[in-house]
Amino acid sequence: MDKQEPSAWKKTIIAAMTSYVDAGSIVAGAAGLSLWQSYLGMNGMQLGLLGALSSNAGSAAVGALIGGRLCDKYGRKFVYTYDLLVYILGMLLIVFGVNYAMLLIGYIIVGLGVGADVVASWTMIAEEAPAENRARHCGSAQFAWALGPAVVLLLSVFLNHLGLLGNRLVFGHLILVAAWVWYQRLQMPESKDWQETKKKETELLAAGRMQKVSYSVLFSGINLKTVLFLVGMYSIWNLCASTWGFFMPYIFEHVGNLSHAMSNALQVGSFVISILATFFIFMGLGDRVNRRLLYFIVGSIYVAGWSMWLLPPESMTMAMVFAFTAFAGINNGAGQQAFYQLWCSELFPSRYRATAQGFTFFVTRFAAAAWAFAFPIIMESLGFRYAVVLMVAFAAVSLIIGTIGAPDTSGKTLEQIEEERYGTKYSQGISANMR
């Protein structure tokens, strides 16, 4: 009996779960940062290095760069089948960590797995999604991206009385989820889009009618413009988002003078709002309304949210903190990251789609790594308000670039988009980089 093909939604959900373990690992680290700092006696430099090389930043950047190239060369399934094993290995080092070296190495290994998996999974989702519902399917990854942190933070609040042991248990639950996802992925088929493209490419290469893909293809013509657009709308925005994801509990406790439990509760609330925003705004409207307008509205909310921290300290009441938490939650659910995931998968041809996404994700996380390293130093030397001015500027620049450059891809197949951007000959493999 032939094995039944999984439904498009099952493929999407299994692929999207990488966002759960990715974002979960970032927030688990954030939720326990003060506990680990106290346990290991980390100074500002060690704290910055941990943030810079975590799955929120540097190591994920390298993982995406490597994983993206492997995805296009060996297939989406090949990468996302094995990278979760790397993730689990890193998680074990964190769970059983007894010194700074174990914690740091664990973070780096987890980040490598996360970076590779994000590219493979997001590409797979876009290629398997129906054209008329692509935003809805791609949004499922964003949904999981918010669900993971919400669960992690709820567990953190529930296990708060156990101290560092509670944080180790939170990391441990991510191992169980990753192991289940890895098992489910063994039964998933390869992307049909990649298989067809690879077959055509192999024939053309054998006939001497096409050159192999290299990174140089991303740095000229329409590809360079697309890379610059995606970096502008996503990488710059991510400087704010990575701060929110990794450092906000620390800021709530040390700037807002809130308790550890309250800061975690606020983060839970924000991620719950992100889940609702993803489902009702991005997944509900992304295929039905003008995407440029949707991007502008959700991006503007983020600028307004960060601007609140520029008000005089006495104005920062709990109501304002709640408002900031809600605004950040809406944007993180239906804002720049959801659009980046969608547009990056749509705007490049199949044969180097993952390579392009890996490169832009590399730039994004590398920039986040530099920012994560600098942020605590800026906080200590110049003060929190100076850092906030920079984050308001980052959010505004991302808003402007994304609004101006938003592509019209709604309802179109990936083949249609490719033909419009590169021409029919390119779609048939008779491309500009032929001999």
From TrEMBL:
<feature type="transmembrane region" description="Helical">
    <location>
        <begin position="165"/>
        <end position="183"/>
    </location>
</feature>
<feature type="transmembrane region" description="Helical">
    <location>
        <begin position="12"/>
        <end position="35"/>
    </location>
</feature>
<dbReference type="GO" id="GO:0046943">
    <property type="term" value="F:carboxylic acid transmembrane transporter activity"/>
</dbReference>
<dbReference type="GO" id="GO:0005886">
    <property type="term" value="C:plasma membrane"/>
</dbReference>
<feature type="transmembrane region" description="Helical">
    <location>
        <begin position="384"/>
        <end position="406"/>
    </location>
</feature>
<feature type="transmembrane region" description="Helical">
    <location>
        <begin position="78"/>
        <end position="98"/>
    </location>
</feature>
<feature type="transmembrane region" description="Helical">
    <location>
        <begin position="47"/>
        <end position="66"/>
    </location>
</feature>
<dbReference type="InterPro" id="IPR011701">
    <property type="entry name" value="MFS"/>
</dbReference>
<feature type="domain" description="Major facilitator superfamily (MFS) profile">
    <location>
        <begin position="8"/>
        <end position="410"/>
    </location>
</feature>
<protein>
    <submittedName>
        <fullName>Inositol transport protein</fullName>
    </submittedName>
</protein>
<dbReference type="Pfam" id="PF07690">
    <property type="entry name" value="MFS_1"/>
</dbReference>
<feature type="transmembrane region" description="Helical">
    <location>
        <begin position="317"/>
        <end position="335"/>
    </location>
</feature>
<keyword id="KW-0472">Membrane</keyword>
<feature type="transmembrane region" description="Helical">
    <location>
        <begin position="356"/>
        <end position="378"/>
    </location>
</feature>
<feature type="transmembrane region" description="Helical">
    <location>
        <begin position="138"/>
        <end position="159"/>
    </location>
</feature>
<keyword id="KW-0813">Transport</keyword>
<feature type="transmembrane region" description="Helical">
    <location>
        <begin position="293"/>
        <end position="311"/>
    </location>
</feature>
<keyword id="KW-0812">Transmembrane</keyword>
<feature type="transmembrane region" description="Helical">
    <location>
        <begin position="104"/>
        <end position="126"/>
    </location>
</feature>
<dbReference type="InterPro" id="IPR036259">
    <property type="entry name" value="MFS_trans_sf"/>
</dbReference>
<feature type="transmembrane region" description="Helical">
    <location>
        <begin position="264"/>
        <end position="286"/>
    </location>
</feature>
<dbReference type="InterPro" id="IPR020846">
    <property type="entry name" value="MFS_dom"/>
</dbReference>
<keyword id="KW-1133">Transmembrane helix</keyword>
<feature type="transmembrane region" description="Helical">
    <location>
        <begin position="227"/>
        <end position="252"/>
    </location>
</feature>
